[in-house]
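Hi C.,

You asked whether I'd gotten around to modeling the 128-residue construct. I have! Everything is below, sequence then structure, no commentary in between.
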Amino acid sequence: MDALGPQDTSIPQLVGDVFDAASAPDRARLIEPLLRPLGILSVVTVAGGIFAGLRLRGGWQELQVRVEDIQQVCASDVIALARHAEQISVDVFDNLLRAVLASPELAGSAAGVLLLAAIVRQLVTRRA
């Protein structure tokens, strides 16, 4: 991330930065809102299909990402997921905002604060 701040960094990149700095349980929580709006074709194609198994496990309606599900997931996979989810649903970052705010560790990290600021700015712009 560059030193200029969230206005110069994309939300998907910031999501990747937050994922990189997060604990394993928070990483799992961060991925869930990004996966929810995606259809079967999306989860199979985005990031080489790495998210397909965890999205399809347990049935389509029962999404719960576990820590062991994300062992092979890296920040670049999450950035690709966030970019794709952003194109699918305008509400995806609203849900991501809730997930970050629900975790004191995520919301209190430097990357988390930048992500929250970028999402809030986008929401204000979208509603204006």
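If it helps when you're writing up: Residues 7-127 form one domain.

Thanks,
B.
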